[in-house]
Amino acid sequence: MNNILEKKLLYLKIKKYAENLEGIQSFKISFIGDKDFVWFKKQMKIFFKIEQNNADIILEHDICKKKVIQVIHNILKTNTGINCIQLFEEKIAVYLNIKNLDFFLDSVFKYNQCYDLSLLFLEPERIIIINDDEYKIYIHYSINN
């Protein structure tokens, strides 16, 4: 398929996703290059390679959504005024200004129909990755020192 068409389709897919998010004040979508977000991409590859049992937090399934959201609150230590980034296929970044973390997380989990999520933060540089398999939810968190 034509590279320009693929980019446009991916952009439209991500735009639709972002427009359906709740709890955000604003979002911006941009294409990224290979040299953008290098530390984050490296962390994501590490997290997806490692044995999931090495996750910082492991939750058993049939956990309620509220409990997962509470765990994320405990990690981030805030519910409002969060600026973060979601990467898609290492090609597009969605810059998010979150005004209500509960509504945001609830809408992401509904949209994805699972708890999978990766969020990048620039100040300080940190990443939270949630991997959802059918038995457990694995949460990885790292700060770039």
List the helices and strands and how they pair.
Blueprint: H1 3-19, E1 24-31, H2 38-49, E2 57-60, H3 65-76, E3 82-88, E4 92-98, H4 101-112, E5 117-122, E6 125-132, E7 136-143
Antiparallel strand pairs: 1-4, 2-7, 3-4, 5-6, 6-7
Q: Any overview of this molecule?
A:
With 145 residues, this protein is of the alpha+beta class. Helices cover 37% and strands 33% of the residues. It has helices at 3-19, 38-49, 65-76, 101-112; strands spanning 24-31, 57-60, 82-88, 92-98, 117-122, 125-132, 136-143. It starts with a helix and ends with a strand.
Order of helices and strands: HEHEHEEHEEE
Largest sheet: 4 strands, antiparallel
Overall SS class: alpha+beta
Number of helices: 4
The helix content is 25-40%
The best one-word shape is: globular
Radius of gyration: 15 Å
Give the integer mean of the pLDDT values. 90
The unreliable regions are none
Strand content: 25-35%
- What is the distance, rounded to the nearest whole angstrom, between the alpha carbons of the first and last residues? 41 Å
In what order do the strands lie side by side in the largest sheet? 2-7-6-5
Number-wise, the strands total 7
